[in-house]
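Sorry to interrupt, but I need a hand with the structure work. I would like you to pick a protein and set down its sequence and fold. Please put the record directly below this note.
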Amino acid sequence: MKLGICDDEAVVHHQVKEYIEGIDFGVSLELVDFYNGKELLESTSQIDILLLDICMPELDGIEIGRKLKGNLNIGKIEFSHSTLHNRFRFIFSPILFG
């Protein structure tokens, strides 16, 4: 199983990755790193689960989610968004696109 981590903040990215590596999920887990949305969308990696930062430069997590959900060439991906923002757009937009 491949788990993608997409976050532009290096410290947060590293902490999330380190935390996940310390958990035994009972399955073989390959972590795939992305540091911005463009890099993620251009990747040829088949991701099963995606941890996605919402607020990133160039292409935010909300727009990435919309693009991935609309791409029929990509299989089903489970999304998890993260944000420290308390604004409506950042909290509810990911829920609205599914």
In short: The radius of gyration is 13 Å. Confidence is low (pLDDT under 50) at residues 90-98. The chain has four helices and four strands.
